Amino acid sequence: MERYDSLASQDGRSGSNMPPYLAKDTQSLTNTNSGGKKIIFGTMTLIVVLMLGLAGLALGLVVAHEVKEPSATANNTLASRGTKLDSDAFYVDFNPTTLVTIASWSSTVAPLLTVCAMTLVSFPIAKQLKEHSQMAGFDLPTPYQLGMLLETMTGGITPFFSLVAYRSWPNKEKMASCVRSALILLTVFTVLGYTIAAVDTWLHLVIEAINIEIVEPQTPIMGLGRGLPDGPCSTQLSADFDAGDCIISDHGDVFLVGANEAARVMSNTSSNNAVYDVFIDGMHMAYLGPADNPDGLDYRAESLAMHTTCAQIGRECHLHAETKELEPFTCTEEFYGNLALPNVNGDETDAVTGLPFRSAGIVFFRNAALIELGNASSDSGNENFLTRSSNPHFIGVWARVELHATEEQIADGNVVVPSQGGTSWLLNCTATAYQISYDFLNGSVQHATAEVANGSVGTILNAGNYYGFGKVALETAAYSASQYNDTQQMADSWAQAYSRAALALSAGIMNGRANLEEQQRSTRLVARVPKAPLYTLVGLNSLYAVLGVLLAIMALHSHPKDSNEIRERLSTSGLVAARFEGERAEQAVRKKREMFGEHAGMSTGRVGIEQGEYGGYVFRLRQGTKGRAS
Length: 630
Description:
2 domains
């Protein structure tokens, strides 16, 4: 095969004609490892560490600070689960701005690492160029192609412009394989670098800061439910049960047990208890709960509640006004009277409390027909019905308030206007106590169930009103109810007020009950990081690192001890040394700086530009010109 003659052989120079100092340096360098492997491993490490490190840092921060949706446990069946986190994104409890900044480092570093990739590429290119130089010269680069090859080693985009210009030449040589390979690899890493930058921009655009609500189940630690204390007062079958013993403190005078708390609850000033409204299975109930619910706490608890229904019976009871002193009604033989006085069942005072009647009052009965008084003794003669277990309770209600009746109120005949003015009406009510279980979620009751409570609960909840402690509240309720034009709304309004008063009066004897379930609700500002751009960025970084490793393997197989010197010469510095350093540029070197006499302290002259004999400008080396380094 035809050999390719080197420039040295054409000039007739050989190692035997080399100056002694060069021969000595050459022998020393030839026997020394070129350091090519160090460059390969160092460059590969830089690529791998930076690309995988940045990808790992971004992904690690996301995974380490990921906010996951707590899974419901078998013991937690509360309905509300907070914000639904979609599976297409990570929700990261980390500063979004910092996260975006860290992710952007990849797009900054990737284009800069192209020069490192081309450093690895230069080893096999140098080997290929050396091999082709020892054979026929058809696959060697032309001078212009060599210029493009040197430009590719810089890792910039200038070679692409040179290639475009070269393609437009009318006369051009076939592209040398080493130049073509270098351009292809430069294209791969340039495109990969800018793709990483584009994906990083995509990630920037889709990362957003949002507020999410996290709900985490926890072991119940609070007692926000309410119930009667354990003992005879909560057991309807107890032979010792007596509602009076449970709710009345009799020390010479009659006092309501827990009267101070009852008064505070009635006036809505208690710091412990409060009465709330809730609808369960279409029934409007009042229940006793905590005055303040802890912020962010969802819970399931049990409590006591009351549902009261009332119906207007003024027309049924023949309520009418005759004279100023006569406004009779007769519902049954056990519920009759004259509201003008007022007089009920022949008395102008309450049979239980002895208090005089004023604007409204109640009478308890054993049945809904209002034919058997509740406060009558049993056949034994020593047992009062209303002090024993019973649920529900039946109540006859009368009212005569000093408010003008409207035409809508008196239209159905149940509301009567006394001769001296005002509004009179009668109700038949049923008050039923319930044991309820309710879910308090996100600031309100979201789900509740109810079952009729036992008789002891029913009697105790009604006992406060039976003993007259709710007299003022019920009179006020009569005035409030009389504001409605619809007579059924009047009845419903009074019924709700009765239920609330009953719960308030019993608040002083209630105990807290441990919550059945609890979950803590919190709002967090998090970064929503879509998985698609994040995984794409991590994948591209990893691909960059893998390609770097492959190039390093190729470089190691290119005999780096020999090809490293050629690689050092495949640069602008190598070309300048070949032009101006003379014989020194031909000695074996490990680094390009060793091709320059200036590095060894020798006077090398200065390079200038002069007009040549053919009219163009040429570089000239001027000897004897030396300046000191500043």
